[in-house]
Amino acid sequence: MMTSTQIAEVGIASGCEGGLKRCICPRATICATDTLSIILLALARCSVFFDYPLYMMMFLSKCHNINNVCRRTVLREWIDFGDMHKVHRLFGIIVGIETMFHSFFHMLRWGLNADIDLLWKTTTGISGLAAFMITPLICWPMVIPAIKERLAFEVRKGLHYLSIVWAITLLFHSKSRIYYLIGIPALMYLVDYLFGYFGRNSLIENAFFERYGENGVALHFQNPPNWDKKPKTSYVYVMCPWISKYQCHAFTIFPEPTKEDHTMLCIESSGDWTKELHRKIKVPCLRPLYVLGPYKSPFSDAAVTTSNAIAAASGIGITPTLSLVLNYAGKKRINVLWVCRDPGLVEYILHKFDIGAITKKSYAFIFYTGTRELALPKDLPTNIFIFTGRPNLEHTITGIVTAIHSGDGLPEEMYEAQEKVANAPFQRRMKVALSRVVEIYGKDEMFEYAVEETEKAAAAAVSKDPVSESGGTIDTAPLDDSDPETAPLLFSPDEVPEGEVSLIGLDSMISEFLGGIGEYSRSDMEALFHEIDSDGSGFIDRDEFDNFIGIITTERNLSTLSMSQRELVGAMEKSQMRRRSKITSSDHRSMHHTSSHLLGDSYTVYYMCNLLKNSEGDNPLEDWSIFYCGGSSKMKDDLKAISKKYTIDLSVEKFDW
Q1: 529, 507 Cβ separation under 8 angstroms
Q2: Exposure check for the chain: N or C terminus, fewer CB within 10 A?
Q3: How confident is the model at residue 609 (pLDDT cuts 50, 70, 90)?
Q4: pTM of the full predicted structure?
Q5: If DSSP states are collapsed to H, E and C, what string results for 610-623?
């Protein structure tokens, strides 16, 4: 506050107005000589002072490498370094509002005082106007649903990086402490980013890509030398230079179940980048990529403090859930509750992971909401249950907790029993497996690959190099001309018609495209091949190949088999009903004391409520936690309500960053 004499000495204004003895006018851009101007200046200045710590945290919260180190220190007991994205998002929204608020009151004051030209005649005005115009581009696409749905992720992320420009403009906006409050955190973020980009970015020269279903791609690679052999629940940023050299996308990783020191991840087609990846991976192949990280996921911190957990997931959210289960297999009870409508993803996970083995002390419930029939593994452990339709989350969760808390129906007891509830006939599995290939890959890619395999087999026959199976069939031995049964399947290159497919080529193609999911035998293939090969030449052309595909996918052929996939699921449900039928009416009356329904019902809800009611101030469920990852707002809201009702901690991660 200055007197009129002091203001006159500065030379910007003649003095205070409206009878004021003191007013404010240290420089042209902050000159308020009347009451209204002082009020508007106070509103503008208070908002920016309030934002100073938020400015700092917006940049520090995205220092992934610094946060990763801090999460291993005792500071984690006071600061949730695993949830910095939530901090970044919340503070970003506030700063976005406050920036508009600050700019509005300054411009209103200048306009009322006929000083609006300060907006383009001063460094403060120009830099402020630039920040004012950039702010909506940075914030709105990330938080306003209507804009978020209409803009591709790549566009929104690109606009978000305008925050660097925004920070630079603020450095010129004021001559005071803002140099330190914005400059130092922004510099720390820049150094952290550059360190990660160049120091923790690894080239994977031969990553293996394959489609895991109709809507996604899986990739496998050997861990870079600077990685731990078994990274904890983590995520990496993936950059495929053959798609874009400027886009890095975050995905959860988990250990390759069949190879030591290898990692894999699943990528669902959702945005432009992931759809382009799915389009380019027409056949299983090896391609280079860069991985930046790994960085611990939010689940890593939450899992440390719990003994029993229910890891709920929807869709591709199963990937961090599986990573969590793999890391704590045999150490904690982490029960899996997965809702998914993508049949390819369900099939891939069940075939690639022995979920029954890694959840011996837990339950794994899969609620399949898709329409296509599933190609399930031959034998499912009894602690894995597959149901059609959506779950009643409260009943299911209370059922799991009640079964384990009461000790009646522990999953390890069921696992030891090893009842075979999923044993569909072999022919049925073969048909479902082949139908799956047709829905995942295009006919053109399949035919071209089969032609190439036919030519390779012919070249190998000439060189007397036995042709080995690629791993898909179960009753196939290496072929050579000394075997009277398989010799007729071998041809020399001169005998192969151009652009036609032999049985060996067809078999190799399907084996490769199945990727280890589903089963079939060469004898089944041979019978069907000879049915299609009308002229008996030993080769089929493109029309005959399309005919082969048609026979596989017709409902007529599928319906002749004895057991459908839905009947298989029904068998599991009936198995549960048999267990329930053992409970007498008297047991029902005391259900809350002695037993539980595995999938839960009103009795398990009563048991849980009664448990909390009689706890005498202690929380009997303090060693339980619920984790959720996925994009279902309805499921997240239901879990929040359950968490509040039963005082069970809930950790939510949507991986929307």
Answers
A1: no
A2: N
A3: confident
A4: 0.68
A5: HHHHCCCCCCCCCC
